[in-house]
Amino acid sequence: MPARRADPSIRIALIDSGLGMLPTAGWLRHLRPDAHLDLLMDPVGMPWGGRPADWIVERVLGVARLAVARGADAVVVPCNTASVNALVPMRAELEPDRPVVGTVPAIKPAAAAGEPFAVWATEGTTASTYQADLVALFAAPGQATPVPCPGLADAVEAADADAIAAAVGAAARHTPDDVAGVVLGCTHYPLVSTEIAAALPGVRLHDSAGAVAGQALRRLGLCPAPGAEPAGVTVVLSGDEADLPARARAYPVGAALAAGGRVDAALLPPAVREPGRVSRV
Description:
Blueprint: E1 11-15, H1 22-31, E2 36-41, H2 53-69, E3 74-76, H3 80-94, E4 100-101, H4 107-112, E5 117-121, H5 123-126, H6 129-138, E6 144-148, H7 152-158, H8 161-173, E7 181-184, H9 193-199, E8 204-206, H10 209-219, E9 233-237, E10 240-242, H11 246-249, H12 252-259
Parallel strand pairs: 1-2, 1-3, 2-9, 3-4, 5-6, 5-7, 7-8
Antiparallel strand pairs: 9-10
Helix pairs in contact: 1-10, 1-12, 2-3, 7-8
């Protein structure tokens, strides 16, 4: 394993096949702008969802090794598919030298509210035992309604406004009228939380991006310091350094990350304004 860098600044790597990492990256940039962020995306291999589990593990581990070689002090995986399939082997290889922080949909806090809620997710995640187990663990019987959102993640990835509107509208029509909350069960969905909130007036959106960012800082022993001097943001696309894709810059948080300065809280997806404590995921 490569030696740790002599550079005293903190370097945090985020791993996802595409734009689902942006909300978590935005929170990290807001909370600790002095942490250098490596945004490692995989446009050549995307989407990871639907791939065989062995392929996902090998691909994600390869990206994680690249992150370590680049000097990552922590590796964050803001991707449900990668977390479910590769988090255990990643931790076995990388910890305890550096923390690995995964992503879990915010089903626990939604269930804790004690009111009916829906879980918006991709079709694959909706049908998965992973989601079913989380609902069974944290929600009361009948409290949660799964709502598959065909095409929404792809539309968000492409920054296609018309396709986003169509997918959000279809999912809203399949969401029961009595729900008080909606869990954004795909890391892409917070990027269009404004559109989702408009389609579901009065419904609280639950998202884990802020909590994942907060967990990463805790694992590094860091407290929030939003006024710190900004460090760099580096984008790596399937192994090669590049600019942040134009479709990422179409979102306010992506444009802010590309600009290289601080990220104001007002630019972050509005589902969760304060990152709360989470269990070690």
